[in-house]
Amino acid sequence: MINWRNALGTALLSLGLIPSLAQALPEEARIPGGIALIPLTGIHSDLAPIAHYAGQRVMVVASKESTDNADWIAVVGIPLSANPAEAQALTLGSQTFTFSIAPKEYESQYLTVPNKRHVDPDPEALARWKRESAEMNAAFVRWSAPDQVADRMALPLEGRFSSAFGLRRFFNEQPRKPHSGLDIAAPTGSLISAPAAGEVVAVGNYFFNGNTVILDHGFGLTSMYCHMSAIDVAMGDQLNAGDPIGRVGATGRVTGPHLHWSVSLNNTRVDPLLFVEGK
Ligand code: ZN
To answer: What is the pTM of this model?
Structure first.
């Protein structure tokens, strides 16, 4: 039997109108820092509907074989700051889909940073960081529509997971923002490679993040690579999965050489391992 919806999807895809059918969605975890997969039941349209969460457009992919009787599934990044006591709202025009999230207790981590300026930045450093944040934010809020959805990722680097995503952090005993990525420790110079196809949309040497690259994978999915000793790409480069990005280093606010890897959906940093199969 012909699956007409898939056939239609393929036809529209060839016209560049909708994201491709999801091969494997990221793992769902309806917690702060996780991902919600919301079936958009009752929405019957040939083109991917436009959905928003917390003011940001969210990824919507065609469901495989009418999962939950829905043609489309929203892939929603949930911020670490989300309040589990509140209903979360996804909006499609005047329509609202609500979902709840469970609380998650992330562990605390106490780090000693030798460069005190990285813990108590002076006004000059703060001004620099503000400019850099704006540059990075512009990359995180991008919306592009490549032919494929990068719904699964490989690890960008083999190494020890030295700091998990979501840790509540204290630098030199002072509370700071929770850990918005996964740290992978490896010797300086180790090769970091693209975990999925993407475009290079930010390259910089930043105060906290050191040598940094941001990739845009499309539909609000971006990933960031920090603290590198060397950068192997330039703005606008189109990378395939496995292409080199740069080398492990210890630039910016670090206690040793490692890669800080962030993955962002709808301008929300989520646990990168939700995209990695068999991690
Ligand atoms: Zn980190």
So the answer is: 0.88
